[in-house]
Design goal:
The protein has 144 residues and is mainly α. It is 56% helix and 3% strand. The protein is extended and about 60 Å long. It holds the Pfam family FAD_binding_3.
Length: 144
Amino acid sequence: MQREFAAFHAPVPALLALTRDDQLLWNDILDLKPLAHLAYGRTLLLGDAGHATTPNMGQGAGMAVEDAAVLAQCLAETTDLPAAFRRFEQRRLPRTTRIVRTSWQLGRVGQLENPLVVMLRNTVMRYLPAAVSRSQMAWLYETV
């Protein structure tokens, strides 16, 4: 890590020099293919259990908070748990599926290794107007 981040601005190299190998954590990134269902009778999958995603969009915790808000709304509408859970699934599944798929695609583009393709990607991103990327991601900030 010290070699990889040696050219970073201070204090990154100094902090890494102070970090012992036994202090480093390695956690694999695990994601799930979008599920067809989140509701199974009186059982409901929410948060990472229902839609674990790659970190490329930074939406994992946000989706869990949205899940809680939508679940509260669904439970306020009916005392029938399976019905509330089905309603939750109807409301959440399209959005969580889209986020999982988009995050996976962004990660794939971000991890390209072919130098020519990387140069092309970087050039396109450098000249892409901010308004274009904002409009492409506007759906992400719509209320649930």
